[in-house]
């Protein structure tokens, strides 16, 4: 059972920010993580601030930069034909999150605010260099995604703040892919998930690995490898070596650390071969 | 400081009928349907959004009603299994579930019907793959899914409803 809690659905951002400054207030969007955590006694909010009535969070734009509001659910991201064309990696990632019914509620912003190391939307947002736009008592601020997620279930959100939207300022940047290792076919959390982008014109290669450290890990030094190594198999090997030096996986219910390392090598190589050839 | 309330008045349309009720903020839509409206066709399985037994259609979209608060459903239109048959007349999908033995113990069936009917409503001729994806959030421990998929396929071939 969910413990008694107060509920408020603000009609304006100002009201929302005010409500979120009260003791133990939580924003409620899709609720697919929060309500489960409340039911399981992991979280005990005193006030739920239902942000689904806020216009500012319903924005969705694909022309020029990509803008995804805090209320945009994952099925919307999967189904939007323009987004699928401009930035297919978001839909590919979203399709692996939970089930159809949950994706009708679960939002992209909620996935990153929940800040699970295994968040399936995070690696794509890292390689797309997304920015998180936050509103709070001190006004609005833009936070790069890799500074927004700070640890296991931790973000840089401060008291009273709410995420308005995620922006991808420069989406047209190359060939992308998202790959996910899970325990069984069907719906499962990631043992390892990887996303990447490669652009031969600019010599850019970005690879991000999820579920193998306290936050997703964006590899450093991939551009240099991409520019200097022409053979794709050799490149895949080198990026995979770099990945293994960069991650710090743990043993948990889904996998041993050793298996995560092995799968990281396999999936990073597969990813590099996919986007670099 | 503003006072925030733990009890709310909501207006919800369920299977075409409008209800005005006072609900505690911690009440789920599932509890509201079952305990307040006594519409017990919708089942609670896991209570954490994994099994799909509590699937209902909210504003045209399937949701797990255990992970929606009744308060969030204020102003919404809900469809549950009770709204499918018209009196004694079952829908084509319900008839097909009977014909192909799409249910055994029956516990997953209301949610399964809601997911499958919602699929057929938005995509009258789904492929097998699309059927499997559409019901992937509805666990069934009896049938092994094949009879359910066959029942949905049969309706898709003959035309919905």
Give an account of the 3D structure:
By secondary structure, chain A is α+β, with helices and mostly antiparallel strands. Chain A folds into three domains: about 50 residues, 2-Layer Sandwich (Uridine Diphospho-n-acetylenolpyruvylglucosamine Reductase, domain 2), CATH 3.30.43.10; about 110 residues, Uridine Diphospho-n-acetylenolpyruvylglucosamine Reductase, domain 3; about 100 residues, CO dehydrogenase flavoprotein, C-terminal domain (Enolase-like, domain 1). In chain A, the strands form four sheets. Chain A has a five-stranded antiparallel beta sheet. In chain A, helix 11 packs antiparallel against helix 12. The model of chain A has no long low-confidence stretch (mean pLDDT about 95). Chain B folds into two domains: about 80 residues, Ubiquitin-like (UB roll) (Roll); about 70 residues, DNA polymerase, domain 1. In chain B, helix 2 crosses helix 5. By secondary structure, chain B is an alpha+beta fold. Chain B is built from five helices and five strands. A five-stranded mixed beta sheet of chain B has the order 2-1-5-3-4, sandwiched between helices. The interface between A and B is medium-sized, with 33 and 31 residues.
CATH topology of the largest domain in chain A: Uridine Diphospho-n-acetylenolpyruvylglucosamine Reductase, domain 3
CATH class of the largest domain in chain A: Alpha Beta
Beta strand % of chain B: 15-25%
Q: Report the portion of residues of chain A in β strands.
A: 15-25%
CATH architectural group of the largest domain in chain B: Roll
> What strand line-up does the widest sheet of chain B have?
2-1-5-3-4
Share in helix of chain B: 25-40%
Number of domains of chain B: 2
Number of strands of chain B: 5
User: For the largest interface in this structure, which chains are involved and how many residues does each contribute?
Assistant: A-B, 33 and 31 residues
The N- and C-terminal alpha carbons of chain B lie at a distance of 54 Å
**Domains counted in the coordinates of chain A: how many?**
3
Order of helices and strands of chain B: EEHEEEHHHH
**Whole-number average pLDDT of chain B?**
96
Write down the overall mean pLDDT of chain A: 96
Structural class of chain B: alpha+beta
What overall form of chain A do the CA principal axes indicate? globular
N-to-C order of helices and strands of chain A: EHEHEEEHHHHHHEEHEEEEEEEHHH
| Tally of alpha and pi helices of chain B | 5
